Amino acid sequence: MALVNKPDESIFASSAKQGEVDNFPDLLRGWGVTFDQTQGIPPMEWFNFLFKRLDEKHTYLMQRGLPEWSATQDYTKGSCVQFDGVSYRALKDSKNNRPNESESQYWVRWGFTLSEIAQATLTQYGITKLYTGYDSQSEDLASTPKTAYQLKQLIDSNTRALGNVIPNSKKSSAVNSNSADTVATSAAVKTAYDKGVEAKTAADNAQRTANDGVSKANAAQTSANHAKSAADTAQSTANDGVSKANAANNNANGRVSKAGDSLTGILHTVGIASTHFGHGDYSSQYTSGAPFMVEATGSKDRDTYHPFVKGLVRSKGRYGAGFSLGYTTKQGNGDGFGRGIINLIEDNGTSKNWGFEHNGDFYSAGDVRTSSGKSLNTATQFSDFIYQKIGNFEVRKYPDGTMIQTNTVNFRGGYSHGTVYSFNWAVSFVSAPMVFGSSKAIQDFSFVDRSQMDIKTKSNGSTYYYYLYDPGAEQGDWDMQFLAIGRWKR
């Protein structure tokens, strides 16, 4: 949408001469008042007043930005106003509730200056002051990333220095410790050396005795080797049997039983064919199955759409769309039934819903059209034909804008020949209608020849003017009947 140019500040008719601006007599009725006061033609002074009124409203908004609160204005949730120089936003619909009332449930402050926002503390929200450094004990300052960087450098430096020092707690003089995080002292090394010398002397003596035993052990080892080879062959055969049994068991666990089973993941397939299942009476459909069925387990009680069947076409960003059939549980207050839903959604989040109510009503997201393009929204309904009985008038309005009115005027004791008569239609036409008139005798006259004539220069859509002409001399009680055909809308 193109940017609209800034309007000027001129106010229409603000420099009008005296008498060129006159207050509109009835703002709530509107132009209809002209038929009562100016024969349907509004004067210049009224136009000047209305256009000046509109410009003054625009100037009021341009000067203030936000309108001032009014006790007589109806406000809806989200409306913004100013009151005593402070802006407010409506929390709910209201009228005549002052915005600055203490703990108001209708209004809340909206928009604050920096001077109104307090400094943040440990117990109060507000503006926080930044500080770089780690030598302050203040509790109303916030550290910057540079402070964290300086602390990290200090910690890294201390860590490297501590890594080059062996604490006393990590030094040990023991020679029989299994610890992997202590360091041996010189005393521990001396003790270990002495023990090593003693061990070498004892080992030399034992070696001489062992050499004789080795010869005997070698002979026994040869015999044992033959036995071990046979045992290894048997173990290998047994292990192979266990592996095959485990593989067969795993294969069986991963299969779906033909007798019925449950899946723990999503089943992807190129097609599913089924025989009929769950068919029968409509009344039994909640307790019977179906070829494809979504169970009630896991469904939500309220405000949730549950798709039963869904299909997607094309990819996101390339006119992707989804179409699903499902059910939406109870929405709004209380508990109860929801509605069946057909959902059509685009990849941009735009969606339309077609709803099926439990009382049988169907709600369409848009118009309903026939194969020939006929629209349900523009189809004529019986309620579009309006009939009214107003006094002696009968009014009939038709959807295409045509209006027919009839009226009966009673003349009792004669009439004045040549006198102009008039009456106002019960409902005004948009312009002067076509009028037909006929007379009906009340007394027993041999003939009735009175004639009604329209005065076109005065008749309009609201008032009909006429006079009567009678070439005879009969006078008495009689009725004049009128039928008008015109339009109630253009």
Detailed description of the structure:
With 490 residues, this protein is an alpha+beta fold. Among the domains are: 1-65, no CATH class; 306-312 and 320-378, no CATH class; 382-487, Sandwich (Immunoglobulin-like), CATH 2.60.40.3940. It contains 4 helices and 20 strands. The strands form 6 sheets. Strands 8-9-10-11-12 form a 5-stranded antiparallel sheet, with no helix packed on it. It is elongated. The two termini are 32 Å apart. Mean pLDDT is 84; it is low at 444-449. This is Phage tail protein. One of its GO terms (biological process) is virion attachment to host cell.
Beta-strand level of the residues, as a percent range?
A: 15-25%
Assembly annotation: single chain
Secondary structure tally: strands: 20
Quick one: biggest sheet? 5 strands, antiparallel
What is the CATH topology classification name of one domain? Immunoglobulin-like
Looking across the biggest beta sheet, what order are the strands in?
8-9-10-11-12
What class do helices, strands and sheet pairing give?
Answer: alpha+beta
Summarize the amount of helix as a percent range: 10-25%
Calculate the mean pLDDT score and round it: 84
Named CATH architecture of one domain: Sandwich
Shape: elongated
What is the distance, rounded to the nearest whole angstrom, between the alpha carbons of the first and last residues? Answer: 32 Å
Measured on Cα atoms, how large is the radius of gyration? 50 Å
Broad CATH class of one domain: Mainly Beta
Low-confidence runs (pLDDT<50, min 5 residues)? 444-449
Order of helices and strands: HHEEEEEHEEHEEEEEEEEEEEEE
Number of H/I helices: 4
InterPro entries: CBM5/12, CBM_sf_5/12, Phage_lambda_Stf-r2
GO molecular function: carbohydrate binding; hydrolase activity, hydrolyzing O-glycosyl compounds
Protein name: Phage tail protein
Pfam family, one: Phage_fiber_2
